[in-house]
Amino acid sequence: MQIGVYQAKTHFPELLVRVETGEEVTITRHGKAVARLLPIEPNMKPDLLSTINELRQFNKGRYAGAPISELIAEGRR
Q1: Does 57 map to a domain?
Q2: pLDDT, tens digit (0-9, with 9 covering 90-100), for 17-43
């Protein structure tokens, strides 16, 4: 759907309802597209086990409980 800036301003709440239902709205000024209203994809809750596994992979090979001086020296390499 395309709509002019003035109409978008005056009918903004209705446009948001349409966008919430999945419609895309293009806002135009003097017939030229200047903005788009798009629905945000629903937030997907990450799977807890896969998140834990990713953290374990990230921490693999890192120094757990190493003295700070060693971590600083490693960071400088």
Answers
A1: no
A2: 999 888 999 999 999 999 999 988 765
Q: What single-letter DSSP state applies at residue 35?
A: E
Residues 13 and 6: their CA atoms lie apart, in Å, by: 13
- Whether 21 maps to a domain, the answer reads yes
pLDDT for residue 14 is more than 90: yes
**Tally of structural domains, the chain:** 1
According to DSSP H, which parts of the chain are helical?
A: 5-10, 12-20, 48-59, 68-76
Six token digits for residue 40: 């945000």
